[in-house]
Amino acid sequence: MTDKAKLDVGGKTVELPLVVGSEKEVGIDISALRQATGAITLDYGYGNTGSCESAITFLDGEEGILRYRGYPIEDLAEKSSFLEVSYLLIYGELPTPQQMKDFNRNIARHSLLHEDMKNIFQAFPPDAHPMAILGSVVCALSTYYQHGDETHEEGLNQSIYRLMGKLPTIASFAYKKSIGQPYIYPRTDLDYCTNFFHQMFAVPTEPYPVHPDIARALDVLLILHADHEQNCSTSTVRLVGSSQANLFASISAGISALWGPLHGGANQAVLEMLEAIKAGGGDVKKYVAMAKDKNSSFRLMGFGHRVYKNFDPRAKIIKAHADRVLSLLGMDDPLIHIAHELEEAALKDDYFIQRKLYPNVDFYSGIIYRALGIPQNMFTVMFAIGRLPGWIAHWKEMNRSDKNRIGRPRQIYTGSTKREYNPIHKR
Ligand code: SDX
Fold it and tell me: Which of 348, 368, 366 is closest to 358 using CA atoms?
C-alpha cells in the first residue's frame, strides 16, 4: 500500500498522507484537504472519521476484539481488579504493588464530599433521575477545587483521586436521598466495590456485611465498562476538554452524553423492554417484529453497535457472569429467560443477521445489577462509575498531546442564500 491517498475534487487533485496504527489500521490525514481543494468531508455520526490517535484501547469490531493498553478484556475481567484496570488505563502500565497501594489509599482518602455539598442533593426533587444529580454534582466539584493545577502531574492526580473517590459517594448519596435514608459515609477500610455496596445499602442502625462474591461481581462489571475508545461520551469528554475546560467539567459533560438511551442509558431501557415483554405475556417474536418494522420507532435495546459487527466481547462475558451471579444468589430471574429467548430469536432473524446486530454490553448487564439489588434508575450511574477511568485516561491523553487542538468541526450550509431584510410593516 502506498503511503498516500490521491483524491480528485472537481478537477483538483490532492495527495493526502496515510496514518497507519500499531494494529495496522489506516487513516487518511485530511488536514490539508480544504486548503488544497476547498472541500471538506461530511460523515454523519463520524462513523468513518477518526478524531485522534490513541494508545489507550483497541477495538476490532469485525473480530470482536477489545484490549485495554494491549491486554485482552477477557484476561483483565478474569484476573485483574477495577482499580488496577483504572490505573492501567490512566497511567499506561499495570501498577507495581507499591503503586497499587498508593493509588488505593489516595482514592480512599478522597472519597468524602465537602459537607456543604450535601445541600446540593437537598435541592433536587425526590424523583430526580440520578444521572442528572451525578452530572450536576460532578461539575460542582470544580467549585470546591478551583485552584487545582491540572497542567502539572500532581494537580491532575489530585483531580483524578477526587473523581475516582467521590463518584461512588455521589452515586450512593443520590440513591439515599431518593429513599429518604441517611447518607452513609465512605469507609477507607473497605475495598472499592465493598465500600460502594456499604454506602448504598447500609443504615446507621446496624452492621451491613457485603459478601465478597457480590463485591467481585460488581468489580468485573466495572472492568468491562472501563473504556471503549472513541464512544459518544468519551468523545464528548475529549471535545469539552479540548477547550481546556477542567477535568470535572469535562467528566460532567461525558455523564450527560452517557445518559442517552442509545448509549449508556440502554442498560435501563433493556430492563424496561424485558419487563414490558414479560407483562405482555412473553411474546418475544412480537418485539423482534416491532424492531424490524420501519414504521415503529421501537428498537431492540441492548442490540446493535456502531463498531461491533460481531459479538460484543463484553456481552459474552456478562452473559456468563449473569448466569453465575444468579446461581450464586440462588435467584431465578424470569427476565433472563426472556433475554435468552429474545437473543435467540433475533440472532436467527435475517434482519439482524444482514445488519450484523448482536447483543452489546448493555443487553445482560442490567440483569446483574438487578440481582445485586441496584435500583433500575441507577443502572446508567453504574455504567458511569465503570467508565470514569476511561474518560479520565482519554482526557489526559488529549490534554497532554502536542497534537491537541480545540475541537471545531466544519459544516455544509443548506439554509437560505443571501436575502434582503424586510421591515415588519411590509411583511
Ligand atoms: C453503548 O460506541 C460505543 O462503544 C458505545 C458502548 C460503549 O461501551 O461506550 O459500546 C456502549 O452505547 C452500546 C449501545 C447501546 N445502545 C443500544 O443498545 C440501543 C439500541 N441500539 C441502537 O440504537 C444502535 O444499534 C446503536 C445506536 C447502538 C448504533 O447505531 P448506528 O451505528 O447509528 O446504527 P444505525 O442506527 O445506522 O442502524 C443500522 C441499521 C438501521 O436499519 P436500516 O436503516 O439499515 O434499515 O440497523 C438498524 C437500524 O434501524 N438497527 C436496529 C437496531 N440497531 C440498529 N434495528 C433494531 N434494533 C436495534 N437495536
Answer: 348
* H or E stretch covering 375: none
Q: Could you give the percent of the chain with pLDDT greater than 90?
A: 94
Strand, coil or helix: 18: strand
Architecture of the domain whose range is 266-371:
Orthogonal Bundle (1.10)
**Degrees (nearest 5) of the Cα angle 266, 129, 332?**
55
Annotated catalytic residue 362 = yes
Centroid of ligand 1 to alpha carbon of 360 (angstroms): 9
Rounded to whole angstroms, the Cα distance separating 72 from 75 reads 6
Do the beta carbons of residue 367 and residue 336 sit within 8 Å? yes
User: Which of 225, 305, 321, 394 is an active site residue?
Assistant: 305
Confidence of residue 147 (pLDDT cuts 50, 70, 90): confident
Give the integer Cα–Cα distance in Å for 141 and 367: 32
Q: Is 356 in the pocket of ligand 1 (CB under 6 A)?
A: no
Distance 393 CA to ligand 1 centre (A): 25
Q: Answer yes or no: pTM beyond 0.85.
A: yes
* Tens-digit pLDDT profile for residues 265-300: 999 999 999 999 999 999 999 999 999 999 998 899
In this structure, the residue with its CA closest to atom 24 of ligand 1 is 304
Fold of 66-259: Citrate Synthase; domain 1 (1.10.580)
198 counts as catalytic: no
Q: Is the Cβ–Cβ distance between 302 and 267 less than 8 Å?
A: yes
Query: CA nearest 310: which of 250, 356, 349?
Result: 356
CB 32 within 8 A of CB 16: yes
DSSP string covering 59-119, please?
EETTTTEEEETTEEHHHHHHH--HHHHHHHHHHSSPPPHHHHHHHHHHHHTT-PPPGGGHH
Task: Kindly list the domain boundaries of the chain, sorted by start residue.
Answer: 4-65, 66-259, 266-371
Half-sphere exposure at residue 357, Cβ-oriented, CA atoms within 13 angstroms? 23
For ligand 1, whether the C-beta of 299 sits within 6 Å is yes
Compute, in angstroms, the gap from residue 355 CA to the centroid of ligand 1: 10
Contact 81, 97 (CB under 8 A): no
Q: N- to C-terminal Cα distance for the chain?
A: 61
